[in-house]
Amino acid sequence: MNALIVIDVQNDFCPNGALAVEGGHEIVALINVRMNQYNTVIMTQDWHPRMHMSFADNHNVEPYSVIEVDYGAQVLWPRHCVEGSEGAEFHPLLDSRRADAIIRKGFRKEIDSYSAFFENDKKTPTGLEGYLRGRRIDSVDFVGLATDFCVSWSAIDAAKLGFHARVLLPLTRAIDLDGSLEKAINDMKQAGVEIVND
Count of alpha carbons within 13 Å of 75, Cβ hemisphere only? Predict the structure, then answer.
């Protein structure tokens, strides 16, 4: 069985949001149409406490600085998707009623979470794997924001866990921070993720 996983289509990642991805709003209507092709739709939601360690202003440094933490390099982001805020809500035109499950991630203040499957330590699970296996889903398609961070990390983890993983590239948008999009696509391909360009 196949499922569509919609990654972080939230106000703060769309135009005028705190961490806007260029063209992020352009994929919303396309995703709504695509959801009709799946029996199972899962959505993820970035959901950070105010004092989250990934917020640059909590370290008094410029956004996009990089620090070393226990699990490796950590980009420090503009404050975004604070739990319960308007910025953390799904884009108002996204048909979130179609979600069979919503996975919230990044709610532990001491660790960031890009992947829909694991926190950034690559070992603390979100529960998504168990949900998919319980539904007998073995193939997952990814859409959403941003291609080069949360989408790619999720797809790579899905492939590592033995799911057939595809990224529907036209239904994603990227931050492309210092060449991160090209790197993400290469990393996904090396991990066995299928990149769908149409």
Answer: 15
Q: State yes or no: is 123 an active-site residue.
A: no
Task: Let me know if 8 is a catalytic residue.
Answer: yes
46, 105, 148, 157: the catalytic one is: 105
Structure tokens at 179: 């060449």
Q: In degrees rounded to 5, what are phi and psi of residue 124? A: -85, 110
Known catalytic residue at 14:
no
Task: Residue 180: name the closest of 151, 141, 140 by CA.
Answer: 151
Q: What is the pLDDT of residues 165-179, one digit of tens each?
A: 999 999 999 999 889
Give pTM, 2 decimals: 0.96
Q: Which of 12, 81, 150, 157 is catalytic?
A: 150
Tell me which residue of 38, 42, 10, 37 sits closest to 24, measured CA to CA.
10
The one catalytic residue in 8, 46, 112, 148 is 8
Residue with tokens 């939601």: 45
Contact 146, 174 (CB under 8 A): yes
Q: Which residues of the chain have pLDDT under 70?
A: none
